[in-house]
Design goal:
- It catalyses: DNA(n) + a 2'-deoxyribonucleoside 5'-triphosphate = DNA(n+1) + diphosphate.
- By secondary structure, this protein is an alpha+beta fold.
- Helix content is 38%, strand content 19%.
- It folds into three domains: 177 residues, Reverse transcriptase/Diguanylate cyclase domain (Alpha-Beta Plaits, 2-Layer Sandwich); 68 residues, DNA polymerase, domain 1; 164 residues, DNA polymerase, Y-family, little finger domain (Dna Ligase, domain 1).
Length: 427
């Protein structure tokens, strides 16, 4: 259901996105990298993985995130590859949030490098002033090394699109933009954009729109709300219609559906045995997060990216949140992998996910298993382990061996959608 609140007459939302965040933080931390094309990669000493993020200088030469290192080197021969430092990005993120909050209250932190703010009534008549003050504040803290692009509009969707549009100027520079889309100026700024400039419109959705003879933004804006719902095949399309037409709407909060971690494997761990050791560590990290946020799970997914394909399995767990239970599930799944995969299979990435969540105070036991006594024993053991690890701010006690892989950051990787806690970096 779409809940249309109102149509603002002034700009009310600000969207801020740091430009090439991971790479620019690397440049801030290491002055020798400033002004040079930089690509952040999962770990040091590899040439067979993809670029996680790249600096403004690299982007101007055609490098893109998720581009293979080989291709990045081809389009930008002087690119400098540096291994990721997730804990550094997290600390810088917290510092930058503190700087921003001295200028304007932060409404929602969307990711490690994106956030939204609500403009207070006194700010709405002169939005360029708040944009200028934010940029001056950040420049005073980190100079011109870490820049941001800002979009200001009537609602969050339009502010995000304005922010993205403001990142690119005349093809000679990237980022540090400020775009203000006032209600009285709409929809002119939208008509300059392509369909895939809309957040969430990927290649499949764009193909669906083209099949419906909607080939540009003007035709999309002429659609009716119900037709947009039909095109998207859910209420998201209708919500988007109202957002593009300047309405302020609020979608309901999404419920957490899973806890998981993934890791690109270093060259020395790209075997079944090497991948298993890293999968164990990832799964323990996921179970710790599960307990910290007071959930139980009843499903485990394990997936492996192979040299020539993919392997994955689902395993049903009892309703659990302790390390012993999830590791036992992993052992069973791994025995299947050993039976079905060639013993010399080359594994490039492993991912583990705990799903089918339930709140800790709503746990329902499986009467057929009758394992309550066993679960209580292991949960008590995990409580003691978690208490000790928290006391010493590190992994001092674990079930079984704890051997962090080459390159570190097992479970502490920063995605663009989740900001890890300090506990994720315990080794």
């Amino acid at each position: 259901m779409v809940s249309v609140m109102r149509k603002p007459e002034k700009v009310e939302r600000l969207y801020l996105d740091f430009d090439g965040y991971f790479a620019s933080v690397e440049q801030f931390a290491n002055p020798k990298l400033r002004g040079k094309p930089v690509g952040v990669v999962p770990f040091d000493g590899t040439t067979s993985t993809s670029v996680i993020a790249c600096s403004r200088e690299a982007k101007m030469q055609g490098v893109k995130s998720v581009m293979h290192m080989r291709d990045a080197k081809r389009v930008c021969p002087d690119i400098i590859f540096v291994p990721q430092k997730p804990d550094l990005y997290r600390k810088m993120h917290l510092m930058l949030l503190n700087e921003i909050s001295t200028v304007i209250p932060i409404d929602t932190v969307k990711s490690i490098d994106e956030l939204t703010c609500r403009l207070e009534p006194a700010m709405r008549d002169h939005p360029e002033t708040i944009g200028y003050l934010l940029k001056k504040r950040l420049e005073g803290a980190v100079g011109k090394v870490i820049t941001s692009s800002i979009g200001i509009a009537a609602n969050r969707q339009l502010a995000k699109m304005a922010c993205k549009a403001g990142k690119k100027h005349d093809g000679k520079s990237y980022g540090d933009g400020l775009a203000i889309w006032k209600p009285e100026d709409m929809p002119t700024p939208l008509l300059k954009l392509d369909l895939d400039d809309i957040p969430g419109v990927g290649s499949r959705m764009k193909f669906r729109l083209l099949k419906a003879n909607i080939v540009n933004m003007e035709l999309l804006l002429k659609c009716e709300p119900k037709h947009m719902r039909k095109l998207w095949r859910n209420v998201t399309g209708e919500r988007l219609w109202y957002a593009l037409h300047g309405y302020d709407i609020q979608a309901g909060e999404s419920e957490r559906g899973m806890f998981g971690h993934g890791r690109v494997l270093p060259p020395g761990s790209r075997s079944l045995s090497g991948a298993y050791e890293i999968a164990r560590l990832l799964l323990v990290k996921a179970a710790r997060r599960l307990r910290r946020e007071n959930y139980y799970c009843s499903a485990l997914w394990v997936s492996l990216s192979l040299e020539h394909g993919y392997w994955g399995r689902y395993f049903r767990l009892a309703v659990v949140n302790d390390d012993q239970a999830v590791l036992e599930g992993l052992s069973i799944v791994w025995r299947q992998a050993e039976k079905e995969l060639h013993r010399h299979a080359k594994i490039f990435q492993v991912s583990v996910t705990l799903g089918n969540l339930s709140d800790a105070d709503q746990r329902q036991l499986d009467m057929l298993l009758n394992d309550d006594r066993k679960r209580q024993k292991w949960e008590a053991a995990n409580t003691a382990i978690d208490t000790l690890n928290k006391k010493y701010a590190g992994t001092v006690v674990t079930l079984g061996a704890w051997k962090p892989p080459e390159g570190g950051h097992t479970g502490g990787k920063i995605s663009y959608t989740r900001i890890p806690s300090s506990e994720d970096f315990w080794v």
